[in-house]
């Protein structure tokens, strides 16, 4: 039942009750006349206050209860005091209460009104209340026996406000409310409502709790309430924020609801599988998990301050994110931080992280350097050198080794090699200490070598070739090319050539020799006897000047003389020994040659060279054969005369017994046949020799010898166009024409050289000697061994090579050097 307003006096007396009492007292007089009714209006009437809501139902009370039980209402009439026109009537006069006569003014309530007489008190129900219904109404009740009762109703129509509107106070934008707020952010919201009579209240609620009721009524019927809600947090996620406008209890309040959507920071982040140690250059999977972020957190990996991109995969579920990193640690990562970082990029200061200090085991990293106070470009012989090996390793290196090139260095204090901890000391180094040095460190992860450090020990030049005091033989007007090769570091910056002749020493002008690296080449031509002497070469580099010069003893040279007192000793069935005495060597180193020829065929059986003494031992001889032994000496200028010896077969061939021949010849016939065969062989040999002599004369024309005193692969050839002028001892002599050597005159004119008897034969005789012919030899092989142990293999019946020293050029191996013979 709708509430009915009842007016009460100040003394607490019910004013309606008084009206009812008055009505009951007049009820017995019958119907009230108009005059009486109008007079009754002047009487004080109790007033009831009733409120209604626009568009809703309202109930206007009217107390129709009689004062006595035998009385009752006969008619109820409603007026509006503004115009005193009847609005509604309820008439039961002459009718049963269940069939009253109802009337409603069409210009008044019309069909909106309905009187409910059975209610206590009775009420006039009014539908769809409008603001025009506001006013003071009077209800007149006529009783059958009691006097008329008048009641006043002050009807107030309430106009509810419109629905409130919530906007963002900062941006004044409605759409901002569609976006989530950030955790920790301060909400600044404005709620406003239009209309309402009376003016409504405007209150903010968080769920069912009032958080702000400080509204403000502005002009134009607008009521506003500014809400400031600081630091919203995780607990406010999906909470209901309500702005409610209300001006009556008769209708529900108007409200606007906002459900809070909040971006949340991640709560936790953790690296799950931390290990005590990792090995460098191996692959690992590291897992990190974070939770509490809304929306899902972004997970990133960092190595110190360096991000690790494109190496992790992230997986998200309802409230957490898992990231798996494929990580390959490096040696330099040791003691670094591996960081897993979770962040909600929509929330400021939302980064949280978990770190892992890495313990990386790695192969040692060794770095070799020379002592800080040493200059590697100025190390010279006699200096002390030390190296430092800086080793970085985890775990600590348990072994350190030192190497020079590929050879391990051992501690040897007596030799000036000292190893201590991580340093190597080399005391008083020499040139042999040059090379690449390195150190090698080892731990449980493996071994590693350091960078190589090249040590170059600088030293003054020393003579490499030729040897000090080398004797060189030369003929007058013969061009001699002297090559001075030194060993030095760095390369020489200068060479000096000097010549000492007959106690007079003079420098050779630099324009007459050339320099290339460590080699200087001088062309020298002796012309007179006094041009022979000592030539010296001295090199200088940045370290110093060569102490011992390279010396060439240049002497007038010729062919050696013949061997003397040659004899066959200790002949047996298959061996014999030949000894001779040396003759004059011609001023040059000489070698000794023994040629063994079988008789009577004169096939070369063996060719033996002795570098030291003219002593030979022959093995593997045929006891049934006789041999011719040719002995001679040779040097770079030619060979001596041949000394011939003959051997006798140990067992005569005529004593040979075997199967009897079918031809029985007498000894005289046999001797004649042998003589004829011998003469035929001699004739054939002479013919062949003559033929070969003619052939050599026609095809070989030997120029004067030009000796390259040193020939080695290490000596680089200079271009001919760069050759300096040839140093000529006596430039007054003209050698434009071909020089011819006359040994007999030269030797007679030289008082310092002991005269010897040289071979008077032309040199072509020796170049075409029958002993050096490439004759056909037998296939049987013999071995001849000289005293010096040199072994020659000769095939019988096969063409033999020319003798070691032939008419053309012959290679003579001496104890000190190798020279090339020319046929002069």
From TrEMBL:
Quote the InterPro entries the UniProt record gives. Answer: CD80_C2-set (IPR013162), FN3_sf (IPR036116), Ig-like_dom (IPR007110), Ig-like_dom_sf (IPR036179), Ig-like_fold (IPR013783), Ig_sub (IPR003599), Ig_sub2 (IPR003598), Immunoglobulin_dom (IPR013151)
Task: Give the membrane topology, semicolon-separated if more than one.
Answer: Single-pass membrane protein
Q: Where, per UniProt, does this protein localize?
A: Membrane
SUPFAM superfamilies listed in its UniProt record:
Fibronectin type III, Immunoglobulin
Q: Which GO terms describe its cellular component?
A: membrane
Q: Where are the transmembrane segments?
A: 668-691
Keywords from UniProt, A to Z, are:
Disulfide bond, Membrane, Signal, Transmembrane, Transmembrane helix
Q: Which SMART domains match?
A: IG, IGc2
Could you tell me what this protein is called?
Answer: Nephrin-like
Q: Which organism is it from?
A: Vanessa tameamea (Kamehameha butterfly)
Q: Which gene encodes it?
A: LOC113397069
């Amino acid at each position: 039942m709708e509430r009915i307003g009842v007016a009460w006096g100040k003394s607490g007396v019910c004013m309606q009750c008084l009206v009812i009492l008055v009505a009951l007292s007049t009820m017995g007089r019958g119907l009230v006349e108009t005059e009486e009714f109008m007079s009754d209006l002047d009487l004080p009437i109790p007033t009831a206050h009733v409120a209604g809501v626009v568009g809703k139902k309202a109930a206007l009370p009217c107390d129709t209860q009689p004062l006595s039980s035998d009385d009752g209402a006969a008619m109820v009439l409603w007026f509006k005091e503004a115009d005193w026109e009847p609005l509604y009537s309820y008439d039961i006069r002459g009718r049963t209460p269940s069939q009253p006569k109802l009337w409603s003014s069409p210009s008044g309530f019309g069909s909106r009104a309905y009187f409910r007489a059975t209610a206590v008190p009775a009420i006039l129900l009014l539908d769809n209340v409008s603001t025009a219904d506001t006013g003071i109404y009077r209800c007149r009740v006529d009783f059958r026996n009691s006097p008329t009762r008048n009641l006043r109703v002050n009807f107030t129509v309430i106009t509810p406000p419109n629905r409130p509107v919530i906007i963002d106070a900062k941006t004044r934008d409605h759409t901002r409310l569609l976006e989530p707020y950030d955790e920790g952010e301060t909400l600044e919201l404005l709620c406003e409502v239009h209309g309402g009579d009376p003016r409504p209240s405007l209150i903010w609620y968080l769920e069912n709790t009032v958080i702000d009721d400080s509204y403000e009524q502005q002009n134009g019927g607008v009521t506003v309430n500014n809400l400031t809600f600081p630091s919203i947090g995780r607990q406010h996620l999906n909470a209901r924020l309500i702005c409610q406008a209300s001006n009556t209890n008769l209708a529900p309040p108007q409200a606007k609801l906002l459900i809070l959507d909040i971006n949340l920071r991640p709560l936790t982040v953790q690296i799950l599988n931390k290990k005590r140690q990792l090995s460098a250059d191996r692959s690992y999977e590291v897992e990190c998990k974070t939770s509490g972020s809304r929306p899902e957190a972004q997970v990133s990996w960092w190595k110190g301050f360096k991000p690790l991109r494109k190496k992790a995969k992230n997986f998200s579920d309802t409230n957490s994110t898992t990231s798996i990193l494929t990580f390959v640690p490096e040696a330099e990562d040791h003691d670094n931080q591996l960081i897993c970082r979770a962040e909600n990029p929509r929330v400021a200061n939302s980064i949280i992280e978990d770190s892992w200090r890495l313990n990386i085991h790695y192969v040692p990293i060794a770095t070799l350097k020379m002592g800080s106070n040493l200059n590697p470009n100025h190390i010279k012989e006699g200096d002390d050198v030390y190296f430092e090996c800086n080793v970085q390793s985890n775990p600590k290196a348990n072994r350190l080794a030192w190497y020079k090139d590929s050879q391990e260095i051992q501690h040897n204090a007596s030799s000036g090699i000292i190893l201590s901890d991580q340093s190597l000391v080399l005391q008083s180094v020499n040139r042999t200490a040059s090379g690449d040095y390195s150190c090698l460190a080892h731990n449980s992860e493996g071994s590693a070598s350091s960078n190589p450090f090249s040590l170059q020990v600088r030293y003054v030049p020393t003579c490499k070739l030729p040897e000090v005091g080398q004797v060189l033989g030369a003929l007058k007007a013969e061009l001699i090319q002297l090559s001075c090769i030194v060993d030095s570091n760095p390369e020489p910056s200068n060479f000096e050539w000097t010549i000492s002749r007959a106690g007079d020493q003079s420098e050779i002008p630099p324009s007459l020799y050339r320099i290339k690296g460590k080699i200087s080449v001088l062309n020298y031509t002796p012309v007179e006897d006094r041009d022979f002497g000592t030539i010296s070469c001295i090199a200088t580099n940045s370290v110093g000047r060569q102490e011992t010069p390279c010396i060439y003893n240049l002497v007038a040279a010729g062919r050696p003389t013949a061997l003397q007192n040659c004899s066959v000793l200790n002949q047996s069935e298959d061996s014999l020994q030949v000894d001779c005495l040396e003759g004059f060597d011609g001023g040059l180193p000489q070698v000794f040659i023994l040629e063994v020829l079988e008789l009577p065929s004169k096939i070369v059986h063996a060719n033996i060279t002795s570098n030291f003494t003219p002593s030979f031992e022959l093995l593997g001889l045929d006891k049934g054969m006789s041999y011719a032994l040719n002995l001679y000496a040779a040097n770079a200028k030619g060979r001596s005369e041949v000394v011939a010896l003959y051997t006798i077969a140990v067992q005569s061939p005529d004593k040979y017994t075997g199967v009897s021949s079918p031809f029985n010849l007498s000894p005289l016939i046999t001797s004649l046949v042998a003589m004829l065969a011998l003469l035929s062989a001699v004739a054939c040999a002479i013919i062949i020799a003559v033929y070969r002599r003619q052939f050599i004369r026609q095809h070989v024309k030997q120029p004067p010898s030009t000796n390259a005193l040193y020939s080695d692969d290490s000596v680089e050839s200079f271009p001919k166009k760069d050759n300096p002028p040839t140093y000529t001892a006596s430039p007054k002599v003209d050698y434009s024409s071909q020089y011819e050597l006359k040994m007999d005159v030269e030797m007679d004119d030289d008082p310092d050289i002991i005269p010897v008897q040289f071979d008077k034969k032309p040199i072509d005789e020796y170049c075409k000697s029958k002993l050096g012919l490439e004759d056909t030899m037998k296939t049987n092989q013999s071995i001849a061994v000289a005293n010096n142990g040199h072994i020659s293999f000769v095939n019988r019946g096969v063409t033999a090579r020319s003798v070691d020293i032939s008419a053309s050029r012959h290679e003579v191996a001496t104890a000190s050097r190798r020279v090339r013979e020319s046929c002069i």
